[in-house]
Write a structure and sequence with these properties.
The protein has 174 residues and is mostly helical. The protein is 71% helix and 2% strand. The protein contains ten helices and two strands, in the order ααβαααααβααα. A two-stranded parallel ribbon has the order 1-2.
Length: 174
C-alpha cells in the first residue's frame, strides 16, 4: 500500500524538481504551470489512485506491487529524462479533439471556450513527471499491466496508446 506521505515526498524530491527544471529550460516552447501548493492534495490524490489501480492489476497477475522507492531509481536515469521530454513533445503535437458529449460540459460547466480548454490541455505540470515515472516503471517491469490499465480506463484506442508509449520507451532506453 502506497502512503500519501511517500507520494508527497516524491513530488517534493530534489530529483523530481531538478528534472522538472531541466525540462522547462530545455523545452521553452512548451507552456508550464507555475508551481502551486494549492493543488498539492489533488496531485497526491491522483497519484494515489493511479498507483492503487496499477497495484491492483499487478496483484491480480501475481506481481509484486510497485512502491514509491521503486520509482526513485528512474529519476536520475538519462533514458527516463529523454522519455519525459519526448512524451511532452509528442503530446504537444497531438491534436485535441473535443467530442460532442464533452462540448456542453466544457462550455457550460467549465465556462471555457473550446480554444481555452485546448490551451489548458497543453499546459504541463510536474505531476506529469510523476505519471511518467509510473508508466516507465510499468514499461520496464510489466508492460502488459500498463496496457491493462489503459483498457480499464476505457480510453479511446488503448492499444494504440500503449504501442506509442512502448515505442517511446524503446527509443529512449537505447
Amino acid at each position: 500500500m502506497t502512503n500519501r506521505i511517500d507520494i508527497k515526498r516524491l513530488l517534493q524530491s530534489n530529483g523530481l524538481k531538478e528534472l522538472w527544471q531541466t525540462i522547462q529550460q530545455e523545452l521553452p516552447q512548451l507552456h508550464f504551470y507555475e508551481e502551486d501548493d494549492s493543488t498539492e492534495e489533488a496531485r497526491i490524490d491522483y497519484l494515489e489512485d493511479y498507483i492503487s489501480e496499477c497495484n491492483t492489476l499487478l496483484r491480480k497477475s501475481n506481481f509484486q506491487e510497485m512502491s514509491i522507492k521503486d520509482l526513485y531509481i528512474y529519476l536520475s536515469s538519462d533514458s527516463f529524462e529523454a522519455f519525459c521530454k519526448q512524451d511532452f513533445l509528442e503530446y504537444e503535437n497531438t491534436e485535441i479533439v473535443i467530442d460532442e458529449s464533452e462540448r456542453d460540459y466544457i462550455l457550460n460547466e467549465l465556462e471555457m471556450s473550446e480554444d481555452e480548454y485546448k490551451q489548458g490541455c497543453k499546459m504541463y505540470d510536474y505531476l506529469h513527471i510523476a505519471e511518467n515515472l509510473i508508466d516507465y516503471y510499468l514499461l520496464d517491469k510489466h508492460p502488459e499491466i500498463l496496457l491493462e490499465y489503459y483498457k480499464s480506463q476505457e480510453w479511446k484506442e488503448p492499444e494504440q496508446m500503449f504501442k506509442d508509449k512502448m515505442n517511446l520507451y524503446s527509443m529512449c532506453k537505447i
